[in-house]
UniProtKB/TrEMBL annotation:
Belongs to the PsiE family. Keywords: Cell membrane, Membrane, Transmembrane, Transmembrane helix. The chain crosses the membrane at residues 12-29, 105-124. Signal peptide: none annotated. It is found in: Cell inner membrane. The gene is psiE. It is a multi-pass membrane protein. Its main location: membrane. This is Protein PsiE. InterPro entries: P_starv_induced_PsiE, P_starv_induced_PsiE-like. Coiled coil: none annotated. It holds the Pfam family PsiE.
């Protein structure tokens, strides 16, 4: 079997799966908005602040995952940076909603700090790789200019 043929089939399966995932995320996003609107418009019941906060945060999470599926089709990839962003924001939102246990809050704060450190390390390594690539390209051009007798 041709390798390009297998790659095309794999890409089609992946695209269909991402479309299905996007539709599911959009439907959950719509459901959460509907639930939020109906609970806010329901004047007869008492509104629990923490329950409403959880619903709002869930809505934002579905929105972010729907944006990730969109990014896949626009850029043909999902960057690691966006996953780190979502992880940081999810932990921050969770910290806002769940703050009963001090140890749990400390663990969540440590997880946020770890994600920030990973994000900084990722950006520094990405910058280093791009700088190294630029230096390699520049050195290659200088070498070919100084040694025109070599055929590369």
């Amino acid at each position: 079997m041709n390798r390009n043929y297998i790659d095309k089939i794999y890409q089609i399966i992946l695209d269909v799966a991402m479309i299905a995932l996007g539709v599911i995320m959009i439907s959950f996003f719509g459901k959460e908005i509907w639930n939020l609107a109906s609970s806010l418009m329901d004047g007869g019941t008492s509104v629990n602040f923490y329950k409403i906060s959880e619903m709002i945060l869930e809505t934002f999470m579905f929105f972010e995952f729907a944006i990730l599926t969109r990014e896949y089709f626009v850029q043909d990839r999902i960057s690691l940076q966006n996953f780190i962003y979502i992880g940081i924001t999810a932990m921050l939102r969770n910290l806002l909603v769940i703050h009963n246990d001090t140890l749990d809050m400390l663990i969540q704060a440590a997880a946020i700090a770890l994600l920030v450190i990973v994000f900084i390390a990722y950006n520094l390594s990405k910058r280093h790789i791009l700088t190294q690539k630029h230096h390699d390209e520049r050195d290659g051009k200088i070498f070919t200019e100084e040694h025109p007798e070599h055929d590369f």
